[in-house]
Design goal:
Elements lengths: L1 E4 L6 H12 L8 E4 L14 E4 L16 H6 L4 E4 L2 H6 L4 H13 L3 E6 L3 H6 L2 H16 L8 E4 L13 H16 L3 H6 L1 E5 L4 H8 L7 E3 L6 H12 L1
Parallel strand pairs: 1-2, 1-8, 2-3, 3-4, 4-5, 5-6, 6-7, 7-8
Bound molecules: 2-phosphoglycolic acid.
């Protein structure tokens, strides 16, 4: 699976170009997901692929100005939603507990959450990154249990690699992906084996092949490179092979 996260970038023209590029390609063997900003979601209505939100509210409706609910996303054609992206954790103070609640709300509305986890640079340097990532996942298990993980995609995004051009090496990515799968395997082996774990952090067409060929890397969550239709298409094609 390859997911594009436009973050707060793009415009309606880019949405049209992206759709033309992706729809004109043979991507039958790869699951493609585009997560544009909310105003452009409906521009992707005829995408041959899935559409996702970048965030959802923990509330269902009501007096929460500026928020978007899971049912709203579903009603405009989203099947996925990013939850707990590091930029939301940092910019909006989203805690592990809030992220877990949002995962639960997404599932309730029939959306597949793409649960983003990953350590900041200081935690990587301290060597505590496995504990950090385990705590982020454990917080979600504490709220929804393990069984619903068959409706979740996990994205490992080391914060020090996001938008920095500093990609985790294929072995660094594989090591963490294997750790996540192994941790979940102790709770439910079938779910762990079937779980899709995406890598995100400065993925480009030039490094996608090597990252995606790691045994526990099941695709990518692409930020900057998802804003260039041809580059994003090439990353999708790398996931196909
Ligand atoms: P990047 O972003 O590909 O620009 O590093 C990844 C992400 O934040 O999802």
């Amino acid at each position: 699976m390859v997911a594009g996260n436009w973050k707060m970038n793009g415009n309606i023209e880019l949405a049209k170009q992206m759709m033309d590029t992706l729809n004109g390609a043979n991507l039958t063997d790869v699951d493609v997901l585009v997560c544009p900003p909310f105003p452009f979601i409906s521009a992707f209505n005829s995408l041959k692929g899935a559409i996702g939100g970048q965030n959802l509210s923990e509330f269902d409706s009501g007096a929460h100005t500026g928020e978007v609910s899971g049912s709203m996303l579903k009603s405009v054609g989203c099947d996925f939603v990013l939850v707990g992206h590091s930029e939301r954790r940092t910019d909006n103070g989203e805690s592990d507990k809030l992220v877990a609640e949002k995962v639960s709300v997404a599932l309730k509305h029939g959306l597949t959450p793409v649960l983003c986890v990953g350590e900041p640079e200081s935690v990587r340097d301290s060597g505590e990154f496995f504990n950090h990532i385990q705590a982020q996942i454990e917080a979600v298990i504490n709220v929804i249990g393990i069984d619903d993980f068959d409706n979740i995609v996990v994205a490992y995004e080391p914060v020090w690699a996001i938008g920095t051009g500093k990609t985790a090496s294929p072995l660094q990515a594989q090591e963490v992906h294997a750790f996540i799968r192994e941790y979940l395997r102790k709770l439910n082996a079938d779910i762990a084996n079937g779980l899709r774990i995406l890598y995100g952090g400065s993925v480009k067409a030039a490094n996608a092949n090597e990252l995606f060929s790691q045994p526990d890397v099941d695709g990518g969550l692409i930020g900057g490179a998802s804003l260039d239709p041809q580059e994003f298409l090439n990353i999708c094609l790398a996931a196909k092979g």
